[in-house]
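Ops channel
N.P.: pipeline sanity check, posting one input/output pair.
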């Protein structure tokens, strides 16, 4: 039976891929064959002699000492693109929060005088709502550096929102290029992007 030590919180759906008949998976295993982690920093952590592999649930491996792993023959895996949709959705949330007065509107509503009757509340909201309207994303320019798994999803989302999307990736893969909308304008380092005033 292979033993896997987990760090951080790993999604149950992922851990269920390891059959209980063949794997023991837990955060407290003294002589593991493998580690699974997200953000745990292993740079200074001693490795048990039993360790054969490290799986990083995420795109990067900057929290894993790759040189030391290579010296010890420990195989390192990562999962690029596994969380790409979640990151795209966070980018969308950031775009909406920064372009619209969502939080300001919530704060205003939460701090309104609760003793007012419905007619007064409605009148106050009608008078104040223009302060929270913000501006539309459609027609704005979205610049993206890196058009891999996450960048291409964000670019396509921008196109779907009616934005002008410009992207820069000097090492874009053929696979990533196929995922990318043809409406994304390619930028290169010889032609710097100049932001335009957009209303």
């Amino acid at each position: 039976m292979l033993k896997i030590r987990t760090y951080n919180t790993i999604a149950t759906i992922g851990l269920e891929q390891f059959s209980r008949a063949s794997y023991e998976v837990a955060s407290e295993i003294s002589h593991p064959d493998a580690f699974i982690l997200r953000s745990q920093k292993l740079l200074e952590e001693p490795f048990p002699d039993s360790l054969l592999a490290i799986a990083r649930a995420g795109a990067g491996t900057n929290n894993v000492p790759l040189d030391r792993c290579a010296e010890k023959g420990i195989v390192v895996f990562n999962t690029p693109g596994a969380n790409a949709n979640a990151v795209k959705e966070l980018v969308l949330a950031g775009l909406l929060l920064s372009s619209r007065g969502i939080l300001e509107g919530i704060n205003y509503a939460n701090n309104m005088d609760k003793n007012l009757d419905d007619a007064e509340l409605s009148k106050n909201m009608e008078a104040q709502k223009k302060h929270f309207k913000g501006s539309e994303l459609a027609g704005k320019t979205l610049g993206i550096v890196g058009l891999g798994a996450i960048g291409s999803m964000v670019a396509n989302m921008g196109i779907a929102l009616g934005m002008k999307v410009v992207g820069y990736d000097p090492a874009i893969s053929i696979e990533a290029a196929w995922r990318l909308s043809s409406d994304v304008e390619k930028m290169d380092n010889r032609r710097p992007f100049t932001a335009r005033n957009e209303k």
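N.P.: looks fine end to end. The two ends are 62 Å apart (CA to CA).
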